[in-house]
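Problem 3 from the worked examples.
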Amino acid sequence: MLNPFKDLPERTFEAFNRIRALEKDFVEHEANLLTHAEFTGFDLGANPKTRINYFVSLGILRQPKPIFFGKGRGGTRLVQKDAFEIFEFVHDQSVDGFNFNEIAGIIRERREDLLKKACREADIDVDILEKVKFWEEILKDLNSSRWFNYNLILAQVLSLKMSVVIKDLLHRVRLEIDVLMSFGPEIGPEKAADMIKARRKREADLLEILKKDTSRAEKVLENISQVE
């Protein structure tokens, strides 16, 4: 089995892995979210955790992850770090007279708009052949992560794109090169050489795409790291 990761620069792996870890690592304690909501004047009612759970059921927030400090020491929940941004948006929409069900619909539309923008910025139409399949997959990922911040959504798009380029396209073209090199005499030396040349060009193009997307990923990670 060919290794699709061979010859890729270390910085590509690092950027890819850091983005993949965002859903787990880019989180905030629920207590801090509640403090932020109180500071911004957003009323979460008599039982804030119940209100947060309601937002989860509406698709506004991702399900918080419980963590425990040890036996007898209690625990807390971790929420997505851009929940602060979501709360501010919900607050602004509620001030304008929208109820929570309406706001949930507005948020879904806004997420999809941001996702389309991120796909354009990541050159999905240029670099990815099966665009419909890519859109379905990235939309499913976004419905799971429920990111709202644009940089986080762009990071998710870049993560999936890099995965497709490495594991599917680059792996496939390298496999084809190996096959052509093995069966060249049966195909004919000249024809095999032309086919290998074309695939080497495709391989170089894919590596250039990864180089470009690695730089994009590093930049978006830098922007995300500046979020307080």
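Problem 4, a separate protein:
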Amino acid sequence: MNKLVKIPVVAAGAGAGLFAVSIVVYYFNLDMRLIEALHPYLSKWYDHIERRPFNPPKEVF
């Protein structure tokens, strides 16, 4: 196959494949299921972060 034909065909196939994967992830809500599975581990890490107290900004008026 000619290179001028092969490159766009491969790029179009890769784009169609990525689009199909994104539709499957959206349809089955896989991103939120993954975050739900990782939430206990992320919470342990996040809760150990030292935080400084919040001081609201002073009014300028």
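Solution to problem 4. Helices lie at 3-28, 30-47. The two ends are 73 Å apart (CA to CA).
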